[in-house]
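Notebook p. 47: complex prediction with nicotinamide-adenine-dinucleotide.
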Amino acid sequence: MYDYSNLIDGEWITGEGDAFETLNPARPAEVVGRYSGASARQITVAVQAASAAQRAWRRSTAVERFAAVEAFVTGVLARAEELAVSITREQGKPLAESRGEVAKSCAEARIMAAQAFRSQGDVMPSARPGIRNMVVRRPRGVIAAITPWNFPILTPMRKIVPAIAFGNAVILKPSEFTPSTACILAEVAQALLPRGIVQVVNGKAAAGSHLVRHKEVAGVTFTGSVPTGKAIFAATADTLAELSLELGGKNAAVVNDAGDLGACLDQITGAACMCAGQRCTAISRVLVRRDLYAATLDGLASRFNATVLGDGMNAGTTMGPLVNAAQLAKVDAMVNDAVRDGARVVCGGSPAKIAGCDGGYFYAPTVLADVDPAMRIAREEVFGPVLVVLAFDSIDHALGMLNDVDFGLTSAIFSEQNTVVQRFIDESENGMIHVNHGTIPDNHMPFGGIRNSGVGAYSVGPSAINFFTTEHSVYIKGQ
Ligand code: NAD
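Predicted complex, structure tokens below:
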């Protein structure tokens, strides 16, 4: 049983806000954690402590900060198995996926720490004689980080590590459904980092809202749903804090031609089903050339039917439950609406009962055919193991459907035709574009989206510096 409060100014402080519990999504009768959430007053204390700590931290050298981040990452890896178990127990994903998430988060962290050594400015020509012009970057200040439940370590680490590597202090408010992993990270930070540089406050929407509205918060990095992202955008209009929003997706794989259709469907199945489809980068639409439609449906159905649903802690489980009852109800309602409107269930199509997992939030991996592009299931994020398959007659038709959604996160094309691939690279309205493979990103590449999928700097990769630092033009004249 996890039992955590809030890491504020180097101490674990019992919350004066809402207390809440987390449940094992595979067996919801089992309480996994108890948490005492931070009040508005306590969040203010955390922000003030972060301000004070950051004033000292920003004077440390990049070398010192790199050493601190390296010690932190080593400390995280020393607790890797415990962290992986915490992910599976609260989020539900198979333990192998949780272990992979821990490893990826640390690999990304090391790359981001190294980014802090790259060139951070420019020497520019001057318009006036005797003056040297430079553009330099400085730490932004206090960063508020708000994270969702689908990647309980990857998303917090994507925010904590660049924040401190670039000389900021960070306050993390993790999801109320999966806070144990972030609390273990907080213990590592408490042991290894200067007091107040990394703080963790628990709570629900109200805690997040207090944090992002605080006037001493200089930057807000948020990953989560579009409605919450819009609420944060509106809330920060008051403080004009810098924003980096990473929101949802309605990602598509376009299958135009495939030398090996089976290999292509393997990639799509992995990208659709990992984390039970609860990934912002999950493929949830397949747009397929009409002559490949029937073979694609058959191939996807056989792969989806081979999934082993179960408790993520059991060896052999390849897909865990959805995270909570609300998510299960939402996925089920969206599929039912689609079927009522004429979609055909090729496989799955309903919640699943698993022996030994009473009341678990399982949903059978689902493929839907005969979907109209105007249907909600073809336009909105499902965030479950549900794939809709739509046929196209030309690449223009495919690109039209691809881009006719509000989101713009990630996309994939399968084609051996250079002109088709080149058009996709130019015209796919997405932040991330994959050719002939699924939508799994690299650890060092910019990660983010356009349109309703994101606002501001991408979270990892070289351009993240634009969020974590401020830019200053310097003019130096000799006396
Ligand atoms: P959510 O928006 O419901 O909650 C995310 C976080 O915001 C939680 O910590 C929550 O407590 C907090 N929150 C809620 N209301 C708030 C408010 N008014 N002010 C401040 N904080 C508030 O999202 P979720 O359901 O936890 O996560 C699923 C969503 O996250 C999906 O839409 C998914 O696409 C998105 N997501 C996006 C990415 C990406 O990188 N683009 C990655 C993972 C998840």
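Notes: The longest strand covers residues 27-36. The pocket of nicotinamide-adenine-dinucleotide is lined by residues 146-151, 173, 175-176, 204-205, 208-209, 212, 223-225, 228, 231-232, 246-249, 280, 381, 383, 409, 449, 453 (CB under 6 Å).
Next step: compare against the earlier run before touching the bench.
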